[in-house]
Design a protein that fits this description.
binds pyridoxal-5'-phosphate, globular, 13 strands, 20 helices, Rossmann fold
Length: about 425
């Protein structure tokens, strides 16, 4: 399968090139050149399949032309080594718990898959070192660092703003060592992101080292997220629900997650419609209402992994629907909630149902509560474990949250970050010295 740029001004490339490059040379995002429907027979079998089996079959449909079946099976199974249960919260509302992986957030799925795929492409290139640069405000850094930990031929540089990520987040990428380097930048998240963007455009760096990104612009990170949309639907189907009435609600920031769901639908998964739930960063919501897309600087919220003012995957959504606003609005509706509303939702859901939401999942849960029509069944993606936002959540509910052992283990590690100023020349000479 070839991958084409959403900008349409760059040649089509192989999967390997799309993964290693990240972004197309015309600054577009790569998309699969075709999206084929899976046969009915596959959907008939879905409810009786395990998550790893299903993940492999979907991976095979996507990547089977580019990766031999045995390797693909092995790397998919290795990436998907944790459960993703669908949990009933109340009548007609289910939580897809995506936080049972090593860093307790859904980004583990894509990061683990991408790391293993890159490792596969490196197997015949023993001398090649791919350098992954990732700027993080918290969650992405931990998922990518842990996903790539110990993968041959890959080095990861995590740039994070000094003093602006929570201690729980910092220990998840700054204590690992091996092929993971944590760079503590004396600046803001925007500074970190600007350093990474400039590095990709720097000819001298490009000539001397292979650089790639591991955020959701990379096809190997966002496409595997499709696996769990199939799995969510299958789990509901095995409960005997009306499978033509399923609505999926996705708490959205950069829109990589929901784009994977939209492609799953295009491959035949019978999802009736999607809801994109936003916090106060409501650029997409506004686009749905007005047809105008006006990116602006993000504002800080308690669902901070969704604090995005110019969602990078928006172009993929446009691309999927031929830039037709009506077609987009027919399949996706939007919601936006303030911090106050998110807090009230976390509190009320716990009181009424006993279910502990994290702030991101809460945005999506509320969107379902307010928008589900009669007859519909809603699934919201619970994208992170509430313990990752322990202080915020405990502040809202007044109830202590237990820290899972795999999170506590990180907290016993020793921080080993390299301090750098928010200065491109300093960052560049550091990279070149490695
Ligand atoms: C990254 C993240 C999101 C947003 O996902 P996108 O794919 O960027 O839309 C939502 N919730 C959590 C917990 C995240 O870490």
């Amino acid at each position: 399968m070839k991958y084409r740029s959403t900008m349409g001004n760059a040649p089509e490339v192989s999967l390997e090139e799309a993964v290693v490059k990240g972004l197309a040379p015309d600054r577009g995002l790569y998309m699969p050149e075709r999206i084929s429907e899976l046969p009915k027979e596959f959907f008939d079998r879905l409810p009786s399949m395990t998550l790893p089996e299903m993940a492999f079959e979907v991976a095979y449909a996507l990547f089977g032309e580019d990766v031999d079946a045995d390797s693909l099976r092995e790397l998919t199974l290795d990436a998907m080594n944790f459960p993703i249960p669908l949990v009933k919260v109340k009548d007609k509302v289910y939580s897809l718990e995506l936080f049972h992986g090593p860093t307790l957030a859904f980004k583990d799925v894509g990061a683990r898959f991408m790391a293993r795929l890159l490792g596969y492409f490196n197997r015949d290139n023993k001398d090649r070192i791919v350098n992954v640069l990732v700027a993080t405000s918290g969650d992405t850094g931990s998922a990518v660092a842990n996903g790539f930990l110990g993968v041959d031929g890959v080095r990861v540089f995590v740039l994070y703003p000094k003093g602006k990520v929570s201690p729980i987040q910092e220990v998840q990428f700054a204590t690992l060592g091996q092929n993971i380097v944590a760079l503590e930048i004396d600046g803001t998240f925007d500074d970190c992101q600007a350093l990474v963007k400039r590095a990709f455009l720097d000819d001298e760096l490009a000539g001397k080292m292979m650089l790639t990104s591991a955020n959701s612009i990379n096809v190997a990170r966002f496409l595997p997220q499709m696996f769990y949309y199939f799995y969510a639907w299958a789990q509901l189907a095995s409960l005997g629900a009306d499978m033509d009435e399923v609505v999926i609600c996705v708490p959205s920031g950069n829109f990589g997650n929901i784009t994977a769901g939209l492609i799953a639908k295009r491959m035949g998964l019978p999802i009736k419609r999607f809801i994109a739930a936003n916090n106060a960063n409501d650029i997409f919501y506004e686009y749905l209402q007005t047809g105008e897309y006006n990116p602006r600087p993000s504002v800080q919220t308690i669902a901070n992994a969704m604090d995005v003012g110019d969602p990078s995957n928006f172009v993929r959504v446009l691309d999927l629907y031929g830039r037709d606003h009506d077609a987009i609005a027919a399949e996706i509706s939007g919601c936006t909630y303030s911090d106050c509303q998110i807090e009230a939702t976390v509190k009320k859901a716990l009181e009424k149902t006993g279910y502990q939401l994290d702030p991101h999942g809460a945005v999506a849960y509320r969107a379902l509560e307010e928008n589900l029509k009669s007859g519909e069944i809603g699934i919201f993606l619970e994208t992170a474990h509430p313990a990752k936002f322990k202080a915020t959540v405990e502040g809202i509910t007044g109830k202590e949250i237990e820290i899972p052992e795999r999170l506590a283990a990180f907290m016993r590690g020793k921080k080993q970050s390299v301090a750098l100023p928010a200065d491109f020349e300093a960052f560049k000479s550091y990279l070149l010295s490695r």
